[in-house]
Amino acid sequence: MIQRLFGILAALFALLVFGPAVGAPYPQPVDTYMNDFAGLIEPDAAQALRGSLAALERETGIQMAVLTIRARSDYDPSTSIADFAQRVFNGWGIGDPQTNDGILLLVSSQDREIRIHLGAAYDQAYDVIAQDIVSNVIAPRFREEQFSEGIEDGIMQTIDRIALRLVSESPHDGTGGGFLDRIDHWIFGAIAGIVGYGLFGRKIRNAAARLRRCPGCGTRGLRRVTVRLPEGGRRLRTYCRNCDYRDDRMLREKRDEHVRHRRRTNSSGGFGGGRSSGGGASGKW
């Protein structure tokens, strides 16, 4: 009887002491953009990626976070990678609660699982794009054990093909209206989208250029500047500070500065309380 009572007390003590740590459903963030708990990302790449993600949020209002973990079993092994990502996304509150356009890139290294989880603003067409990025961009890199490069490529593809695409789409007011009214909205949305993509994309790519390795010497950290030509026009110059590599491309002049601006009014940092409905895509390597 005494031994049984002692066993019960020991079990209760273990539950009180160790239960909260074992039962944590997901990790707590230490950074708004980069939480590399599995140690998969090179330090210089992580710093550059953080700058790119900060530029994305600053220029478009879209918040994207990256989370790498050792294994889901460290938290809640009973869930799928999609359910785990949903719990992290809504638990952290990624993105703006008014637009719900946040994005989470999740990697579980021992489970060999990848997930791009999308906010409620993204329809099923974006799930298809996310699946292509997971399967054909990130996973092939991971199979070669190029984890940092795979995450870098995945982030930039997600910015270009998902985040900036959402920015370029025209809003739907849901009020119906006549056919001509809808044509006007479509035309305006297309024009604003093209201009918006050029404005936002250029600024974000300037920040992202520091991720790229120089084709000449292999050093990471290319620079981009705009050069005005004496005869008129402008040229975008990409160059390396460590060798003589240089790539010049002519720029077309902007004709219209009118664009649907989606910048967040509160840019104090941290998560804003965004929600996800479970959209996105998963994969393994």
UniProtKB/TrEMBL annotation:
Per UniProt, the keywords (alphabetical) are: Signal
Question: Matching InterPro entries, A to Z?
Answer: TPM_dom
Q: Does the keyword Phosphoprotein apply?
A: no
**Gene3D superfamilies with a match to the protein in the record:** 3.10.310.50
What does UniProt give as the signal peptide span?
A: 1-23
Q: TPM domain spans which residues?
A: 35-159
Q: Is the Protein biosynthesis keyword given for this protein? A: no
Q: What segment(s) does the record annotate as region Disordered?
A: 256-285
* Superkingdom of the source species: Bacteria
Name a Pfam family for this protein.
TPM_phosphatase
Compositional bias, Gly residues, is annotated for 269-285
Q: Which PANTHER family match?
A: UPF0603 PROTEIN YGCG (PTHR30373:SF2)
Q: What is this protein called?
A: TPM domain-containing protein
The species this protein belongs to is: Albidovulum inexpectatum
Origin organism lineage: Bacteria, Pseudomonadati, Pseudomonadota, Alphaproteobacteria, Rhodobacterales
